[in-house]
Amino acid sequence: MSSSPDRIRVWDLPTRIFHWALVVLVVFSFTTGKVGGGWMDWHLKSGYAILTLLVFRLAWGILGSRTARFTHFLRGPRAAVAYARATFAGQHPSTIGHNPLGGWMVAFMLALLLAQAASGLFADDEIATQGPLADKVSNALVAKMSSFHYYNGWTIVAAVSLHVIAVATFQWGLKVDLLRPMVNGWKTVLPGVRPPEPARAATWLAAVFLAVAAGLVYALVVVYPRG
Amino acid sequence: MKKSALAVLILAATALLAEGQQVKPENQIKYRKAAYQLMNFNFGSLEAMATDKKPFNKDDAVRNAEFVALLATVPKGFFGEGTDKDTKAKPEIWTHRSDFDAKMEKMTSEAAKVPAAVHSGDMAAFKKQVADLGAACKACHDEYRAK
Predict the structure, then answer these.
(1) Which residue in chain B has the smallest CA separation from A222?
(2) pLDDT per residue over A38-63, tens digit each?
(3) What is the SS3 assignment for B73?
């Protein structure tokens, strides 16, 4: 099947696993944060897992597969506007990887999630739970971080909703299949217009990055606070 | 023991209220904040033990639990009219008073069960009671505490 001319591999396995693991963990983090009580312990652990994934994603965005790289999907504002115009005009230019608008949405969501995970490290709910680094900074900063963590959570809900609506619009409104490629990695292209296969980085490299990310997060949230 | 001194103080304070003595709004805020802060300290210690962030120590847990149960009874007497300045307490407390009181009651009743849960030596029961109290605190914070 891999030699079939009308299919092209756009998303590598690490990027797909990252995406769907993030979906599960973000939903879990939001839910446990809102339910509170005995779930707060899980809320923190889920946050550490998300932070690990984000650190991995930053590395993969620099040294990973072609379509996962920031240099591939972060295009200038002119490209984004041109793409938006074309899309709203009824054309939907076929793109390999994130389109020029979606690329910025991805960067925006990654930034929001990174800010959320980072602020959570310093947050304190003033019931019984505090982030592992709350004791390392002033209470004034802890209060700011806690407040930010609360409001930014709703900003993430808004951004994720927009992301889902946009994908659904492409999927069922414009009949551009975005979901299947994010599941199995393959995108269907019109026969004869098959663009070159984007370069893929080795999966073992992703495993190394993930392991290093996990080690860094462990050092930050477990080892460092003890000292 | 320091705790009995604190108990006397709290009883005296609540007795004053019962006798209709007015504590000026500024001090009501001060006392309820003090009670919440000490609850936070003691409950934080219990939570750390319940989630294995620190080893369970029964003497500490008993002390924390008794403080929490006693301190939990303090704030309800100090949410009088005019105590909505310089505080995270939202004005909705005074416009939804019966709901606020119900949530406060829920919190104090859950806090009252913590010492028994510690004494029981049943870790599952202890963890559950810590979680239930945390949820009761949060229910009120969500509605009536500014973020």
Answers:
(1) B53
(2) 999 999 999 999 999 999 999 999 99
(3) coil
